[in-house]
Amino acid sequence: MTHYIIRRVLTSAVLMIIISMVTFGVFFMVPKLAGTNPAELYVGKQATPADVAATARKLGLDQPVTVQYARFAKGLVAGRDLDDGPNRTHCAAPCFGYSFRNDRPVWPLLLDRLPVTVSLAVGAAVLWLAGGVLAGVVSALRRGGPLDRTMMVLALAGVSLPVYFTGLLAQLVFVHTLHWLPGGEYVNLADDPAGWAAKLLLGWVTLALLYAAAYARLTRAQMLETVGEDYIRTARAKGLRERTVIGKHVMRSVLTPLVTIFGLDIGGLLGGAILTESVFGLPGIGRLSIDAVNTKDLPVVLGVTLFGALFIVLANFIVDLLYAVIDPRVRLG
Amino acid sequence: MATTNSPTTTGPLAQPGRLPQPSAFLDVRDLRVHFPTDDGVVKAVDGVSFTLERGRTLGIVGESGSGKSVTSLGILGLHRRGHTRISGEVWLDGEELVSAPPERVRRLRGRKMAMIFQDPLTAMHPYFTVGAQIVEAYRVHHRVSRAVARRRAVDLLGRVGIPQPARRVDDHPHQFSGGMRQRAMIAMALANDPDLLIADEPTTALDVTVQAQILDLIRDLQDEYRSAVLIITHDLGVVAELADDILVMYAGRCVEEGSAQTLFRRPEHPYTWGLLGSMPRVDRAARDRLVPIKGSPPSLINLPTGCAFHPRCPHQGRDGIPCRTEVPDLAQGSDHGVACHLPPTERRRTFAEDIAPAL
Amino acid sequence: MSTHTSPDRTTARPGTDELLRVTGLEKHFPITRGAFIRRTVGAVRAVDGVDLTVATGETLGLVGESGCGKSTTGRLISRLLRPTGGSIVFDGRDITDLSVRRMRPLRREIQMIFQDPYSSLNPRHTVGTIVGAPLRVQDIPTPHGVKRAVQELLELVGLSPEHYNRYPHEFSGGQRQRIGIARALALRPKLIVADEPVSALDVSIQAQVVNLLDDLQRELGLTYVFIAHDLSVVKHICDRVAVMYLGKVVEVAPRDALYATPLHPYTLALLSAVPVPDPDRRDRAQRERILLTGDVPSPVDPPSGCRFRTRCWKARERCERETPALRELAGGHLVACHFPVEDAERTPRGRIAAHLAAADVAPATTTPA
Ligand SMILES: Nc1ncnc2c1ncn2[C@@H]1O[C@H](COP(=O)(O)OP(=O)(O)OP(=O)(O)O)[C@@H](O)[C@H]1O
Ligand SMILES: Nc1ncnc2c1ncn2[C@@H]1O[C@H](COP(=O)(O)OP(=O)(O)OP(=O)(O)O)[C@@H](O)[C@H]1O
Ligand code: SF4
Ligand code: SF4
Ligand SMILES: [Mg+2]
Ligand SMILES: [Mg+2]
Fold first, then answer.
1. The total number of structural domains that make up chain C
2. Where is the ABC transporter domain (chain C) (predicted)?
3. Of A152, A303, A121, A323, nearest to A224 (Cα)?
4. Are residues C222 and C310 in the same domain?
5. Smallest CA separation from ligand 2 atom 18, residue
6. How far apart are the C-alpha atoms of B20 and B25, rounded to whole Å?
7. Which residue has a Cα nearest atom 6 of ligand 3?
8. Which residue ranges in chain C fall short of pLDDT 50?
9. Collapsing DSSP states into helix, strand and coil, what is residue A56?
């Protein structure tokens, strides 16, 4: 087991390094391909070419990509100083870059927005796991019946409807027409729990719907497969109650693939969150990145992308560990 | 062992000459298990009857798909109710199971009747430890603490010959070898000292040396507990090793039954001859050719008319017997039942003159 | 196709016309650890010094318990795997280290038949495509076209030419195994390595396939290496038998000699374990049966000296120290044991003594692989 963990930690670390290199490389290339000078983005359109060149030099943007990456990497680990002409700014570790538009390092920007995104993601995850798995189990147990069919049609619809459609529709009906839910600004959980939940509710449901459908289908398929396994027959042959057979023996096997998929989805959630946040006007990381793209705030976009990628690696690492706990056969591998 | 195999009567109670309540420990009467499918009704078991006493072993043999496993699952009540049509009666120790409420059958399952399955790798839950699975089997039927059940599990593992049971009890099934897994399966089946032990191909997935160990173990345990054992296999060698009585199945029916000696020394059904003839034997000088049964097993949805074996039977229609039109009954009376239209004298003569010399 | 005529089965003896000679054959599968820096921490010694010869037209049986390296040996012989040691000489040519490209023309001459008739045939291809594939791949000239050639092959294995356009799922297990055999025969090989060709089949279908293999050998002068764990089938079909234990050949002998006078204790135990389909001899068989204790040790870390010593009731100090070499004790009867089974041990009394002695061997505490 220890071997396994050490191996996974190493793999994840190397993966993170590679990802940071690739991401950095891409963001280094993009302005070049677009024919713009990144320094222009910092100083603004009105600046003279000389100003641009000076800024580029100061920021080290004229250096080769390897040198720039080395600085960036050092910043991530140990923090670094940014020399922007007259004023020197310190960007503390982990330094994901410095946003000149906001005049702040990227990391605190991210941290500011993180609670919103986490609130949205965790709430949605709880909803979709509970809802999706429950629907899948019920469907599988009532296989072929009217309940099963209805559920699977809904699931299909859930998978195929885009978030902006369901989201905007829900927003229109519940907030603007029925006034059941507040419009207004996002509030913190600590300040006003009810308001927090009310504001997030639609986001949770919309996002959960997107995933719950897939989970229901996966759970159902997995259950139907497991129910046919020899070891389930053995469980029945022992005289176990049907409740125990399904709740313990079948669910144990269904859980394993669910955990895997869940890990991948948590990673990919950021994508779903971006859309959802913008639909419901939630000030999370998704919104941050959209705003950054709109204002061409390259460091922020880079920071968010890298953060997202690292988050996915981390999620996968945790899933792998979970997997080893769940499936004893993995430990020896 | 008395057997009937009457295709005409619908309920066994309608059969003359049989007590409504049997005296035998296990008495299966006219068991039928049909599966409705999109292509038609699969008549997997179509009127099988037999009895089995405590301390005795009955072997069921037959080709793949002849309904052996379906019969055993039918006794345990393990078929999914909504998808299966079951009729007939299964009397276990004076209690009828087919018509009993499922909850009642569940309480008997694992306690009074237990089962060992073919493939010990797939028949154990991969995510639970061997010990946990045995503990569970014990605690369903006994209100005892985990610690007590665990001691019982260690005990059972030791009984079936697992070395260092106190340590191995916490292993997962994949950490056991095939033979050890099958031993663990047997330990699980024995957890509640069942009176009826059904072993469905208990050694088919194992090597001969391990098979010999497992058969030895089953024999020992039966001597010790005097349970009734039903062993299902397609290996005639294995039944010859274990069984007191043998029942030969073909296409969901019993075609011949009798004591092991009878069936091996003077079999009378052409299908049984076919099985014996197609089997290479290690205890005889090598023959030149095996004698396979021609053709392939019948469809259980559209069974051949008359004797289901007739398309493959070399004696079909001999002397004008009605093989294609009439279903032969499992002739009753003696302790040797044969479902074939050939007259008994003719069968015995054919076996002695044509079949036996070639075996 | 082989120009040799099939020799009389009873007189076929090794060395008469040698087709295959395997010397010191080894296959060690490395066990690696580490995600980035792969290092080898050990090896599965699946095949560890196997010597065999096969004469033209004979059938050599390869028996032994699961995991003893039979399939690996078969795959090495047909060069689907590259040996890690030893040599393979086929038809006078050393094929041990031939590259895939150089091996290609030889593929025609060595073919393999696999155990599972279900998974070894591509379900999306017709029988015609499956059986004809080797002809097309190897560019074999077919005077009347590939289709005719395939139909002839189908007839040869007892299928009908009309089956040409059907799919594998339309056939029964025995018929599917015939399709596999037809495919192996397409290139008119000299040697066929059959890896458990009948193990997955019902007795009556098994008999059909066994008879077919027999007929084909007689008609085409084929040579077989027949891998199986069923000693009854092997007795029926093989001229000579090699017994393997944990990656090594422990005994090789002409069929009748092996079954009548086994010399290796393991062979004796193996033969005694075969269930006898005769209820009258049941009690006797049980009293004389040698039940080995414990499991086969792991091929990663086999016992020193004789590999069977952890379960052998005759083991002595020398067995631990010294690896017994395969030596010839009688005509064509080779055994690797320091203390081969003697005649007295094959009498009923000797067998009962062995039965008791074997039960007393302390089970090895090693966990199986
Ligand atoms: N749930 C089911 N639905 C439809 N058909 C079924 C079902 N279960 C079994 N059958 C069919 O019933 C027949 C008898 O099956 P059974 O498993 O009893 O055979 P068997 O004698 O045990 O064979 P084997 O030796 O291969 O185990 C087979 O043709 C099988 O396909
Ligand atoms: N590719 C591989 N990598 C690692 N180990 C392997 C590989 N192939 C086989 N082995 C191991 O080599 C040993 C011999 O395997 P092999 O398949 O040759 O046995 P076998 O005698 O054919 O057994 P069976 O009767 O089960 O088919 C086994 O311990 C197996 O686990
Ligand atoms: S009844 Fe006829 S077809 Fe059936 S087994 Fe007897 S002889 Fe053969
Ligand atoms: S060499 Fe020794 S241990 Fe090995 S088989 Fe012979 S007697 Fe047994
Ligand atoms: Mg079965
Ligand atoms: Mg193999």
1. 2
2. 20-271
3. A152
4. no
5. C69
6. 14
7. B340
8. 1-15, 365-369
9. helix
Residues A200, A202, A204, A210: is their CA dihedral positive or negative? Answer: negative
> Are residues C214 and C360 located together in one domain of the fold?
no
Q: Residues 6 or more apart from A49 whose CB is under 8 A from it?
A: none
Beta bridge partners of C93: C90
Do C102 and C142 have their domain in common? yes
Does B310 contact ligand 3 (Cβ within 6 A)? yes
DSSP letter, residue A295? T
- Cα separation, C102 vs B345, in Å, equals 67
| Residue C325 domain flag | yes
Q: Which of C24, C42, C83, C73 minimizes the C-alpha distance to C301? A: C42
Q: What is the pLDDT of residues B18-30, one digit of tens each?
A: 556 677 899 999 9
3-class secondary structure for B104-157?
Answer: HHHHHECCCEEEECCCCCCCCCCCCCHHHHHHHHHHHHCCCCHHHHHHHHHHHH
Please name every residue paired with C40 in a beta bridge, in sequence order, or none if there are none. C32
Cβ within 8 Å, pair B240-C275 = yes
Residue B188's pLDDT band (cuts 50, 70, 90): very high
CATH homologous superfamily, domain A107-332: MetI-like (1.10.3720.10)
- Strand, helix or coil at B33? strand
Spell out the domain ranges in chain B: 26-112+194-358
Choosing from C258, C286, C312, the residue where a domain stops is C258
Mean pLDDT rounded to a whole number for chain B = 88
Residue B83: φ, ψ to 5°: -110, 10
Contact A287, A295 (CB under 8 A): no
Q: Give residue C97's domain range.
A: 9-33+42-258
pTM of the model: 0.82
Neighbours of A62 (CB within 10 A): 14
Residues C151 and C70 reside in one and the same domain: yes
Pick the closest to residue A183 from A173, A171, A168 (CA basis). Answer: A171
Give the number of the ligand closest to the Cα of residue C64.
Answer: 2
Q: Give me the pLDDT at residue B5, please.
A: 45
If you measure CA to CA, which chain B residue comes closest to C255?
B286
Torsion of CA A76, A81, A85, A88, to 10 degrees: 130
Answer for the pair C47, C27: CB distance below 8 angstroms, yes or no: yes
Spatial distance between the Cα atoms of A297 and A311, rounded to a whole number of angstroms: 21
Chain-centroid distance of CA C244 in Å reads: 9
Q: What is the pLDDT of residue A65?
A: 79
**Closest CA in chain A for residue C32:** A333
Q: Give the end of a domain, one of C234, C258, C282.
A: C258
Which contiguous run of DSSP H or E holds residue B30? Answer: strand B26-37
Mutate-to-test residue for ligand 2 from C33, C71, C226, highest number of ligand atoms within 8 A of CB: C71
In DSSP notation, C160-190 reads: -GGGGG--GGGS-HHHHHHHHHHHHHTT--S
Cβ proximity of B324 and B311 under 8 Å: no
| Six token digits for residue C119 | 């998974």
- Do C270 and C238 share a structural domain? no
Q: What is the pLDDT of residue C340?
A: 96
Beta-carbon contacts below 8 Å between A and C: 8
* A39 neighbors A61 (Cβ within 8 angstroms): yes
pLDDT bin (cut points 50, 70, 90) of residue B287 is low
Cα–Cα dist B172/B169, whole Å: 8
pLDDT, mean of each 10-residue run, chain A (333 residues): 79 84 79 69 68 72 80 82 68 79 82 84 86 89 84 77 73 76 74 80 80 87 90 93 92 86 76 74 82 82 82 80 73 50
| Ligand 1 pocket check for B37: Cβ under 6 Å | yes
Amino acid, res. B342: L
Q: Tell me the average pLDDT across B68-80.
A: 92
Among the ranges given (A84-98, A238-252, B159-173, B297-311), the one the predictor scored with the smallest mean pLDDT: A84-98
Around ion ligand 5, residues with a beta carbon closer than 5 Å are B 69
